[in-house]
Amino acid sequence: MQFDSSDLENICEALHQMEFRCIRNIHLIEDAQLISTDANSQVELSLLRNQLQRCHTTMEKIKLFGNSDQH
What distances in angstroms separate CA 71 from CA 1, 31, 59, 64, 66, one per listed residue? Predict the structure, then answer.
């Protein structure tokens, strides 16, 4: 599959937005846990952390892909 630089920029921008939302939601859940002890929030927190890790991994792969295209 061929990507040009604008495709990679759009993908990176979408990943950065996902990253921002994950981090924001993680902070909201962590703050809410200070007030109450909800078992579902632990599950949600774990899922968000996993999603954030996948975003970071995908961003790194895209950076490597973009760098290999430039050579």
Answer: 17, 46, 19, 11, 9
Domain that includes residue 63, residue range: 5-69
Q: How many CB atoms lie within 10 A of CB 48?
A: 19
Q: Is 3 helix (H, G, I), strand (E, B) or coil?
A: coil
Which helix or strand (DSSP H or E) is residue 27 part of?
A: helix 5-35
Entry pTM: 0.70
CA-CA distance, 18 to 31, in Å (whole number)?
Answer: 20
What is the end-to-end Cα distance of the chain in Å, rounded? 17
7-22, pLDDT tens digit by residue? 888 988 999 999 999 9
Total domains, the chain: 1
